[in-house]
Amino acid sequence: MSSPEAPTRPAPPTIGVFDSGFGGLTVLRALVQRLPRARFAFLGDTARLPYGSKSRRTIARYAAQSAQFLVREQGAEFLVIACNTASALALDAIQDAVPVPVLGVIEPGAAAARAASRSGDVLVVATDATVQSRAYSAACRALGLRAIEKACPLLVPLVEEGWTAHPVTDQVIRIYLDELNAEAAAQGLRPDALVLGCTHYPLLRPLIERAVPPGVKVIDSAESTAEAAMRLFNGRAAQFAQSTGPETEIRCFATDSVEKFERLGSRFLERPVGSVELIDLGG
Amino acid sequence: MSSPEAPTRPAPPTIGVFDSGFGGLTVLRALVQRLPRARFAFLGDTARLPYGSKSRRTIARYAAQSAQFLVREQGAEFLVIACNTASALALDAIQDAVPVPVLGVIEPGAAAARAASRSGDVLVVATDATVQSRAYSAACRALGLRAIEKACPLLVPLVEEGWTAHPVTDQVIRIYLDELNAEAAAQGLRPDALVLGCTHYPLLRPLIERAVPPGVKVIDSAESTAEAAMRLFNGRAAQFAQSTGPETEIRCFATDSVEKFERLGSRFLERPVGSVELIDLGG
């Protein structure tokens, strides 16, 4: 029997955050800013990354296994798919695989572009698989936007090499954006927003903002996804507010290369990731 | 009963060639040049690439499964591990997993450096996992060479982006080689050979040859591995010579992304790769 002085207060719900690697820590960072007393379980399926160059069938299988780990083993009550490729290619498969609300990054990114754009024409940069899925184009079209997408496969390796403020990265970004702008112009579009359609890209935001034409707003889908998550969690807001959680509680899991995750992850999360637990999803 | 006019001649042995991706097609190309009438089965474990950023345990499991496919399902009588990372981290595991001779790329690369170097000091460029394994350093040391290694993680994505003659790639190569040369100088070494310790790098050979200091020879481990394979096959030379195979027979298999393999593979093989068969190794 609990005394009136120490009423039992509910534990905060656990929010599962999933990515193929650790780029999704940029989404976790945005969530932590908004829910400082929540409990998070982050899984990076690092043994099988990058998803960006794999087929839809393979990505769906990997993502469903990862989502099941977060829900069944970690008790996640909400899932945020902090991976553009998995959101683009496997959101349905994940929703079928687990009985909790699942939020991807594509629709929040498109919604933020809709809010930012006056012309209705937007640019999207992403991995090869995300672009080939045409998921951003579809999500934008559903909101009355015209989107033009470009795969930028060198940007993830450049971020992982730590060259986030390097002249080579600046050149690569300008080459990709020049090609994208030329393509937009050829189609008669007048884009005024650029969606960062990969969770690694927020680390390149300063270089990208210098490289976009004047008047083009840069949309970080990590930020817009965290905003969308807040709306999704709204019914549980009281529980978050009253929870006994002292400080943010974050547990990080990876399927491989824990050392690399620990070494690079803090750049994405902007705080130490602590020790990362190695798990085996098979395969 | 066969008539004397048409004596039964042995079929050529099948040589299995394995890589995590399709970079190992540079090794297959070198093998085909030397054994134009042989039969080859090439497997790229593209669903699980890149091996270069994964742990030894994971790489060993993946590579053993792949080797077993080539031997059990394709009847390979020899295996060439055309992947530096798998050779560096999993050669023992592969040899334990299959009952046929297995040749990796590390020792042939080191032997070619031994033949080329007068100073006894050599440079090695490779993926992160290959460098961390120190396999080239050990193989070089066993031959009386001092090796200094550098991970160059941007070079594979640059090759896969098709930027094999691009000014950005030229700059990246010069940055990596400047760092490597500075490190060698700091250790008092006088290197006169550079081993390309990744099967993607032969596509960058022209840029690399322009970037190395004068007097430094560039060693392509694909070529030296094919030479070593010829010595390994020597006892079967007559069978290769007499075989009824009309032309080179190549079957290519991949665990994912067959389309990308078919699109990019011909750059590595320098001939059409034909249709690539999708297989499932689980996971």
State the main characteristics:
homodimer, 283 residues, alpha/beta, Rossmann fold, six-stranded parallel sheet, four-stranded parallel sheet
Structural notes for this entry:
The structure is a homodimer of 283-residue chains. In chain A, strand 3, helix 3 (84-97) and strand 4 form a beta-alpha-beta unit. Chain A has helices at 25-34, 56-73, 84-97, 106-116, 128-133, 135-142, 155-160, 167-186, 205-211, 221-232, 237-242, 258-269; strands at residues 14-19, 39-44, 78-81, 102-103, 121-126, 146-151, 193-196, 217-220, 249-254, 276-278. Chain A is globular. The first copy, chain A, folds into two domains: 14-104 and 225-278, Rossmann fold (3-Layer(aba) Sandwich); 106-221, Rossmann fold. The longest helix of chain A has 20 residues, at 167-186. Chain A has twelve helices and ten strands. In chain A, 46% of the residues lie in helices and 17% in strands. In chain A, the strands form two sheets. A six-stranded parallel β-sheet of chain A has the order 4-3-1-2-9-10, with helices on both faces. A four-stranded parallel β-sheet of chain A has the order 6-5-7-8, sandwiched between helices. In chain A, helix 1 (25-34) crosses helix 10 (221-232) and helix 4 crosses helix 10. The first copy, chain A, has 283 residues and is α/β, with parallel strands linked by helices. Chain A binds chain B through residues 46-50, 53-55, 58, 153-154, 156-158, 160-161, 168, 171-172, 175, 256-257, 260, 282-283, and chain B through 46-50, 53-55, 58, 153-154, 156-158, 160-161, 168, 171-172, 175, 256-257, 260, 282-283.
